[in-house]
Write a structure and sequence with these properties.
Blueprint: H1 17-26, E1 29-34, E2 40-41, H2 42-45, E3 51-55, H3 65-70, E4 73-76, H4 88-103
Parallel strand pairs: 1-3, 1-4, 2-4
């Protein structure tokens, strides 16, 4: 992470993503997987004031099937023009910006 920014963002490291997503859902988080072919935009998927866990897949292959099935929702980041997907770091920053806009500051 750039200049230690990772220390400023809440994050976790897990061994089994599907189990972790189930636990997060039990704790009241909306688990949203990012997918360029998602059925609705991320802006329309996140509810204002909600607790959100964003899930990003690998570059190229995206989310694994089990992860897709475990997420409560799949959403896309709408882009103007022909571009439909981004590299994972760019998708992450846009998704965090969108989430912050919808959720608000806590």
């Amino acid at each position: 992470s750039a200049s230690g920014a990772l220390d400023l963002v809440d994050h976790i490291e897990v061994r089994n993503l599907a189990e972790t997503l189930e636990t997060l859902a039990e704790l009241g988080f909306a688990t949203i997987g990012l997918d360029s072919e998602g059925p609705q935009s991320l802006e329309n998927t996140i509810e204002a004031g909600s607790r959100v866990a964003l899930v990003l897949g690998s570059e190229g292959k995206g989310l694994r099937q089990k992860t897709r099935e475990t997420c409560a929702a799949l959403a896309r980041i709408d882009m103007p023009g022909e571009i439909k997907s981004l590299n994972v770091s760019n998708a992450a920053i846009l998704a965090l910006y969108i989430a912050r806009s919808k959720i608000g500051r806590r």
